């Protein structure tokens, strides 16, 4: 039987700009033996499927972990204090693309790397957009595009779109 | 214009069981200014959409990062020396479910967390399965199930399936 684990000791061994690392000891169910766990603590994020005139709004940016320039849905970290999740999604869409959306639908959440990282990404579907001026965060270099839906799905198939949260958002928005 | 970044200094500040952390300095394009980057170094993995008699083979296990018991495609880390990627996929499917597959199709790759982690997950579609005996890794507690395709898609919609790599694999296998 699959049992939950309980953290019984936790030490912060790295505190970074975007994530921390905890070195933990955990027990599984009623078993008193300690299991060593190393976990990345991340505040979570939002990712937005934004639809405009039957097209999808995508951003393109360099991603240091991947070492590649990727196409993605507009997205960002939850790190602005007590900001609620929907407000964070609205803020990120506007910062990266300038768009405001009239209609917001929750698409639930996903875990990007559930074994080793706490990051939970909340997905949204934004429709009925009106344009504005993008104003990315300091140091954030982002281009944005609008592509026909069918082209976006071809890019997922060909591998040109390979960002997990982007594929998950598009699946929940259109393919279920 | 979006430009690639070049790592000019790199220091390993944590070496763990599953991942390392590097603290890097990078330059963007021709700009000589250094940008500080903290990155999780991960060996990458494989994740398999396994189809048996019109059903999907899913595993269920506790994930420490998520703090939840999740349904996922069979999957695992690339950490067995020089093992090629397809061999790793075959090994993981067999370890977690006992199944051998006759037909293997590449579904490309995804990045789970491209901003901060190097993890690249190779997705496969395994068909024409024959059953065997699972033999999970020491300490790995996994249950496996076979569920009708339509039920699996309902679980993605309801949020019961929230593992990113699993959703991406099912999208590339069936929905494009």
Helix and strand topology:
The structure is a homodimer of 176-residue chains.
Chain A: E1 5-15, E2 20-28, E3 31-41, E4 45-52, E5 55-63, E6 68-72, E7 75-77, H1 85-97, E8 100-111, E9 120-130, E10 143-148, H2 149-158, H3 164-174
Parallel strand pairs in A: 4-9
Antiparallel strand pairs in A: 1-2, 2-3, 4-5, 4-7, 5-6, 5-10, 8-9
Percent of residues of chain A in beta strands? over 45%
Please summarize the sheet with the most strands of chain A: 7 strands, mixed
Ends of chain A: how far apart? 31 Å
Gyration radius from CA atoms of chain A, angstroms: 18 Å
From the spread of the alpha carbons, the general shape of chain A counts as elongated
Q: What structural class should be given to the helix and strand makeup of chain A?
A: alpha+beta
Sketch the topology of chain A as an H/E string, one letter per element.
Answer: EEEEEEEHEEEHH
Number of helices of chain A: 3
Poorly predicted ranges of chain A: none
Q: How many extended strands of chain A?
A: 10
Share of helix of chain A, binned: 10-25%
**Oligomeric state as shown:** homodimer
Query: Biggest protein-protein interface?
Result: A-B, 68 and 69 residues
Mean pLDDT of chain A: 95
Keywords:
alpha+beta; three-stranded antiparallel β-sheet; 3 helices; 176 residues; homodimer
Q: What can you tell me about this protein's structure?
A:
The structure is a homodimer of 176-residue chains. The longest helix of chain A has 13 residues, at 85-97. Chain A has helices at 85-97, 149-158, 164-174; strands at 5-15, 20-28, 31-41, 45-52, 55-63, 68-72, 75-77, 100-111, 120-130, 143-148. Chain A is elongated, with a radius of gyration of 18 Å. The model of chain A has no long low-confidence stretch (mean pLDDT 95). Chain A is built from three helices and ten strands; from the N terminus they run βββββββαβββαα. Helices cover 19% and strands 48% of the residues of chain A. In chain A, the strands form two sheets. In chain A, strands 4, 5, 6, 7, 8, 9 and 10 form a seven-stranded mixed sheet that branches. A three-stranded antiparallel sheet of chain A has the order 1-2-3, with no helix packed on it. Chain A has 176 residues and is of the alpha+beta class. Chains A and B meet through strand 1, strand 2, strand 3, strand 5 and strand 6 of A and strand 1, strand 2, strand 3, strand 5 and strand 6 of B.
């Amino acid at each position: 039987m699959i049992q939950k684990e309980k953290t019984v000791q936790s030490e912060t061994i790295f505190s970074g700009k975007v994530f921390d690392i905890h070195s933990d000891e955990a027990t599984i169910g009623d078993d008193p033996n300690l299991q060593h766990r190393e976990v990345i603590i991340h505040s979570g994020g939002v990712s937005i499927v934004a639809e405009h005139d039957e097209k999808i709004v995508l951003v393109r940016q360099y991603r240091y972990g991947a070492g590649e320039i990727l196409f993605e849905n507009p997205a960002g970290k939850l790190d602005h204090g007590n900001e609620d999740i929907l407000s964070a999604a609205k803020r990120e869409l506007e910062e990266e693309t300038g768009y405001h959306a009239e209609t917001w639908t929750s698409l639930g959440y996903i875990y990007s790397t559930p074994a080793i990282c706490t990051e939970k990404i909340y997905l949204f579907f934004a429709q009925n957009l009106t344009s504005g001026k993008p104003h990315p965060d300091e140091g954030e270099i982002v281009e944005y595009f609008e592509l026909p839906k069918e082209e976006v799905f071809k890019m997922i198939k060909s591998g040109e779109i390979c960002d997990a949260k982007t594929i998950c958002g598009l699946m929940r928005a259109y393919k279920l």
